[in-house]
Amino acid sequence: MLKATGLLAAALLLISPGAAYSRSQAKPTTLVWANGTIADFAQDGNQIAWASVVDKKGACKNQVWIRLLGPKKQKLLTKRTGPTCSIHPAFDSVREYGTALVLAGKQALWTITTRGEFKSDHDYLVTSSYGGHGDVLIDDLVYFYPDGDRLRGIAGDSSTLVYGVESTVVDENENPTYGGGVERVTGVSKVAVPGAPPPAMLAASGNRVAIVVAETGWLDPGSPATVAVKDAVTGADIGSFSPAGEPLALAFSPSVVAVLESTAGGRRIEFRTPAGALLRRVAVPAKATALSITNKRAVFRVGKSIRTVRVAAGVSNTVATAENAPIGLSIEGTRVAWAENVKRHGVLRGRIRAITIR
C-alpha cells in the first residue's frame, strides 16, 4: 500500500509544474482484428473484451467478445436469442452516453441505451462470462421525464462489476426528490451496495468502489464534489475526499484513486490514497480524457496521442500515437491497450492495439 509519511508526504504534495513529453514512442502490436467496427473495449488481468457492430447479412449486429490472451482463445458472449441482439439501437449509437462495456476477470457487463423511444429512456444492463451460456438482461432502468431511474456509470475489476443508478421522484408540486445508489452484479443478478450514495460516476478496484457523489441529482458543472470509497460487498467506508476541481473522469487502483478534474488554471489529475490523503496533482493538456490507472502510472489520451503519468514522480510522457481515435484506452499492469477503427482492404474494421511500458 502506497503511504505518504514524513518527508515522502511533503515531497508528494508538491504540485507538478507541467507535462514533459518523451520523444520516443513504442510501436503498438495488434492483439486481435474484430468482425466489423468496435464501439467499446475493456481489459482486466489477462483478458480483453470488445463490443462490435457487425454489418453482415444473417449476423446479429450487436456482438460482445472476450479473448483470453494466454491461450489466445476467444468466445462470442452474445446469442441470437439474447437481449443484446434484440434491443436497438446498435452499440455504435450509444457511446455518447458513456462507457458501454466493462470487464471483471472473465465476466463482462455492458449497456444498451435508447433515448426517447415511446417517450421514455431505457438503460439496459446485460452480462455474460467466458464460461457462461449467453447474455442475460439483469436490469432495465426506465426514465420517463421527469421521473425514473437513469444509469450513472459502470465499472469492473477483478471479481467486481458495479453500476450506478440515479432515481428521481417528482411530487404533485413538481418538487424533485433524488435518490439511487450502486448495484453490484452477482452472477446473473444484482444486489445493492449497502449505504452507497447516488453516483455521478464510479470506478472499481478489487472489492472496492470509488464514487463521485451526486449530492442533489446529477452533479452540476462547477459544483463542489465528494469522492467516497466503499467496500463493494459490505458497504463499509474506506475513505473520502473533496477534489479541488470539477471531476471529469475517475480511475481506481488498489493504492491510488485518480480524478481528472477541471480547474480555473486548466485540467489536471489529482492522485489520492483510498483513505483520501493527497499524493500529487499533475497538470495535463486541456483536451486530456480517458483516464485509467495502476498503482504506479496513469494513462490518458489527448486526441490520438496516448500519454502516461508516473504517480510518484508526476512526469508525463507520450508513449504511443493511435492511427485513429483510441476507444476504451486503459492500463493493466505494464500493458496499455485500446481499440481503434481503421480501413483494411477498403473496409472500416476494428482492431485491439497494445504496448508494453516499464
Outline the secondary-structure elements.
Layout: H1 6-12, E1 29-33, E2 37-44, E3 47-53, E4 62-68, E5 73-76, H2 83-86, E6 101-104, E7 107-117, E8 120-129, E9 136-144, E10 147-157, E11 160-170, E12 176-186, E13 189-192, E14 199-205, E15 208-213, E16 227-231, E17 237-241, E18 246-252, E19 257-263, E20 266-272, E21 278-283, E22 289-293, E23 297-302, E24 305-310, E25 316-321, E26 327-332, E27 335-344, E28 347-356
The total strand number stands at 28
Any idea of the CATH class? Answer: Mainly Beta
Kindly provide the radius of gyration, computed on alpha-carbon positions and rounded to a whole number of angstroms.
Answer: 20 Å
**Second-tier CATH architecture:** 6 Propeller
CATH topology: Neuraminidase
Can you list the strand order of the major beta sheet?
6-7-8-9-10-11-12-13
Mean model confidence by pLDDT: 88
**Helix-and-strand structural type:** mainly beta
How many helical elements? 2
Mind summarizing the main beta sheet?
8 strands, antiparallel
Order of helices and strands: HEEEEEHEEEEEEEEEEEEEEEEEEEEEEE
What's the shape? globular
User: Strand share of the residues?
Assistant: over 45%
Q: Return the domain count.
A: 1
Show unreliable segments: 1-22
As a percent range, the share of helical residues equals under 10%
Measured between the Cα atoms of the first and last residue, the distance is 20 Å
